[in-house]
């Protein structure tokens, strides 16, 4: 097999012409091959964009009746501005409506403070400004009652007018009371008739909402809440917005007070638009707030409820860099709004995953109000698919594989981020009806490993297939949507002219480094074929290159050809996204082989990693006193190590998996629970820089466990720690700080001997005697502190040093 090389301007023009021809041919093929209808659960809206979150049209309906206090009304106004600021699509529309009742001349039941507004940068600022008009009671003209039918009718009418085609429609209702139109003449002549008519009109409005596919999310606070009425309104509207996703059906929520309205409303808003909310920290300025954005997020808003407009916020990404309030930086796009209001938000497209910081500042006299940060986000994932073999025959069984990654090229490897995911593919083409292929990540069949977020399945190509084939993947999960990226090929009538296989020899690389691989191609044809190696779906930040770009395979030849994949200096750490493709340029650019790029980028080695041997060699030449000091420093470094601890995962008393801590200097041990909701969860070690992981550390005389969503809890002696999904964690084994051992577990550097041998350990450990199960010595005679023993030792060992080196010794 020979590698083809061309140089000079003529060769460059030839390559450009070949690329244009290949792109044109692929475009024509994609245009002529029908994909067929996707599965019902995975089918995107006909007008949905190829990338980015889908739009939502929503109206915030706020109870501004006389029963609402001044402070409560201010909190409602902030909550209304909050979800307007936090919306993640700039094609959504939002409106804000205040309501009361009309009981006498000059009063009105509804006041529209914000007409439907597109929530782009300018629109979000308008919503922030007009929502504050809810607090202006003097010009509102609202009566003291609670006219739900009039308020919901106004919202339904506005949502129907010039709505975004294909967008979900949602009403958020904030109230502290129940239906009260007994003093409204428009509903009848007397209170009893008015109450009956009001209930009738409310049922009619709810029927209309259901017909027009409008969700209603009620939020009640204060005293006198009619929970049954709120449930009726939630049930009466449209119920199938994100019905297949957990917690996404409209439901009422009652909070303790107006101060908690913003949290509850943003949670309801995330559920209504199939997104997720990450709760951040709170604090008064000056200070810093934190919120974590997971790797799966591709579109989000960081909202800061600061209440006082004089408070200013600066935003820092997980790398510690201050990000611009408008514009682009490091592959992300930023856009801030609401800075001069009680709520501001930074909308981020393709955010860096990890912990974000918000630095608050405020002048004197404006530092008494606590601020809160949250992040609402959604993930739009690429579903990269492959087919093995690449050109199957009709009736042949083929293996479908799919991997998920973000637009930044971040590969999703944590199954916990895809709880409830449903993955599928669809095979379509000439001569047969589309075939839906459910994909699994359970380690069965062609899926090689459960929980690695690499899906697989086997499907039979219909015997009637005659030409072009198209494979497309689709996913659905809470807060996640997927694009449908096709894999195009065609059936073969006999042995393929060229068959190719790709393997990688290395799976770890530093930025600026490279990994090697082998291409094994077999040419069954009577003429030579030129193959092109390429990269698809890779991260632009990784700056990947593959060499050689082309190889020529002689007729009847088969031999491995080495290749190299190089990574740019700015390649981000983590699993590299993309796949290696092999196309046959002699056969019209048909793909004859592919493989996912299973490479992990690790940080570049430090100076110590590179030159530790020189440092150690130099240290060996120092004086003996310096060596002794160095040894003492080293021993001090291992005190408190977690080495030897065993983490045991249980459910209902049954052990599901174990994970042992290794490394003498391991003081912080990070791990994750794979497939926590499945029957077969497991434990997996994580890097200390990984987000959304558990962290086990020693603090004082005990252990502490930090959970992914923040907060710490102690690890008690001999008792379980409760995790999500009815799981329990037991920690056992290990060696505590400063504990001496004898026999097989003696301290390094001490001579072996029987457990009852008198010596220096006797005096240090106190009493000898019969050993007890907890590892303490019995009630034998005491040592004199100088290594002597005044009486015989019991089975407990030398002066009480015997016993079990079990769980208690970890503390």
Shape: globular
Name the structural class: alpha+beta
Estimated share of beta-strand residues: 25-35%
The number of helical segments is: 10
Residue share in helix: 10-25%
Whole-angstrom Rg = 33 Å
Mean pLDDT, rounded to whole units? 78
Compute the separation of the termini in Å: 63 Å
Largest sheet: 13 strands, mixed
Low-confidence stretches: 1-50, 736-811
The beta-strand count equals: 42
Quick recap of the structure?
The chain has 811 residues and is an alpha+beta fold.
Describe this structure in words.
Helix 2 (70-86) packs parallel to helix 7 and helix 4 packs parallel to helix 5 (191-211). The longest helix has 25 residues, at 8-32. The chain has ten helices and 42 strands. The model is unreliable at 1-50 and 736-811 (pLDDT under 50). With 811 residues, it is of the alpha+beta class.
């Amino acid at each position: 097999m020979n590698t083809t090389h061309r140089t000079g301007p003529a060769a460059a023009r030839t390559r450009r012409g070949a690329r244009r021809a290949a792109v044109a041919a692929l475009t024509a093929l994609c245009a002529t091959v029908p994909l067929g209808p996707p599965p019902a659960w995975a089918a995107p809206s006909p007008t949905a964009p190829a990338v980015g979150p889908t739009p939502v049209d929503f109206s915030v309906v706020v109870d501004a009746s006389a029963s609402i206090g001044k402070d409560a009304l201010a909190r409602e106004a902030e909550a209304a501005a909050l979800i307007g600021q936090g919306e993640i699509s700039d094609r959504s529309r939002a409106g804000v409506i205040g309501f009361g009742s009309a009981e006498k001349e000059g009063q009105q039941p509804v006041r529209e403070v914000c007409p439907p507004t597109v929530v782009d940068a300018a629109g979000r600022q308008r919503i922030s400004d007009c929502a504050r008009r809810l607090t202006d009671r003097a010009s509102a003209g609202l009566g003291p009652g609670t006219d739900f039918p009039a308020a919901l009718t106004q919202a339904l009418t506005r949502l129907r007018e010039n709505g975004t085609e294909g967008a979900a429609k949602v009403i958020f209702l904030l109230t502290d009371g129940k239906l009260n139109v007994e003093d409204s003449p428009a509903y009848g002549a007397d209170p009893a008739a008015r109450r009956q008519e009001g209930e009738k009109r409310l049922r009619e409005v709810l029927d209309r909402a259901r017909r027009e596919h409008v969700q209603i999310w009620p939020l009640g606070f204060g005293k006198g809440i009619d929970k049954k009425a709120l449930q009726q309104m939630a049930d009466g509207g449209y119920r199938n917005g994100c019905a297949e996703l957990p917690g996404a059906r409209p439901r009422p929520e009652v909070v303790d007070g107006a101060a908690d309205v913003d949290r509850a409303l943003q949670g309801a808003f995330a559920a209504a638009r199939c997104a997720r909310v990450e709760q951040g920290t709170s604090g008064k300025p000056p200070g810093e707030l934190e919120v974590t954005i997971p790797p799966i997020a591709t579109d989000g808003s960081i909202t800061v409820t600061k209440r006082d407009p004089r408070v200013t916020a600066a935003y820092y990404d997980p790398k510690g860099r201050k990000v611009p309030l408008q514009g682009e930086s490091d592959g992300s796009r930023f856009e801030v709004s609401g800075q001069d209001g009680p709520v501001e938000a930074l909308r981020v497209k393709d955010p860096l995953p990890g912990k974000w910081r918000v630095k608050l500042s405020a002048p004197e006299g404006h530092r008494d109000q606590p601020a809160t940060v949250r992040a609402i986000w959604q993930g739009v994932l690429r579903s990269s698919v492959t087919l093995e073999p690449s050109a199957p025959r009709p009736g042949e069984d083929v293996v479908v594989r799919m991997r998920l990654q973000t637009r930044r090229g971040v590969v999703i490897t944590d199954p916990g981020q895809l709880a409830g995911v449903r993955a599928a593919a669809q095979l379509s083409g000439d001569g047969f009806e589309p075939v839906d292929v459910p994909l699994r990540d359970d380690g069965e069949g062609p899926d090689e490993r459960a929980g690695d977020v690499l899906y697989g399945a086997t499907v039979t190509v219909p015997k009637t297939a005659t030409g072009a084939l198209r494979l497309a993947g689709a996913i659905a999960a809470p807060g996640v949507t997927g694009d449908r990226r096709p894999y195009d090929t065609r059936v073969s009538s006999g042995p393929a002219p060229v068959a190719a296989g790709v393997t990688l020899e290395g799976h770890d690389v530093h930025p600026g480094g490279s990994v090697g691989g082998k291409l094994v191609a077999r040419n069954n044809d009577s003429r030579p074929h030129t193959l092109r190696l390429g990269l698809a779906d890779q991260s632009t930040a990784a700056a990947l290159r593959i060499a050689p770009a082309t190889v020529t395979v002689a007729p009847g030849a088969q031999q491995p050809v080495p290749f190299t994949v190089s990574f740019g200096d700015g390649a981000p750490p983590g699993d590299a996204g993309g796949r290696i493709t092999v196309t046959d340029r002699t056969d019209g650019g048909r793909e004859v082989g592919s493989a996912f790029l299973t490479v992990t980028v690790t940080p570049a080695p430090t100076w110590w990693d590179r030159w530790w041997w020189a440092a150690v060699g130099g240290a060996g030449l120092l004086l003996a006193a310096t060596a002794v000091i160095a040894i003492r420093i080293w021993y001090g470094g291992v005190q408190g190590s977690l080495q030897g601890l065993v983490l045991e995962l249980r459910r209902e008393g049954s052990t599901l998996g174990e994970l042992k801590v290794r490394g003498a200097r391991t003081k912080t041990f990070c791990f994750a629970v794979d497939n926590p909701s499945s029957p077969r969860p497991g434990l997996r070690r994580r890097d200390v820089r990984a987000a959304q992981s558990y962290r086990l550390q020693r603090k004082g005389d005990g252990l502490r466990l930090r959970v992914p969503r923040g907060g710490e809890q102690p690890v008690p002696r001999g008792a379980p720690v409760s995790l999500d999904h009815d799981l329990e964690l037991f920690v056992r084994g290990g060696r505590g700080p400063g504990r001496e051992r004898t026999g097989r577990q003696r301290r390094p550097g001490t001579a072996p001997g029987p457990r009852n041998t008198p010596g220096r350990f006797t005096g240090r450990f106190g009493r000898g005697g019969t050993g007890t199960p907890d590892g303490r010595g019995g009630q034998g005679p005491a040592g004199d502190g100088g290594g002597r023993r005044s009486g015989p030792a019991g089975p407990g060992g030398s002066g009480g040093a015997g016993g079990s080196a079990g769980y208690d010794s970890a503390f």
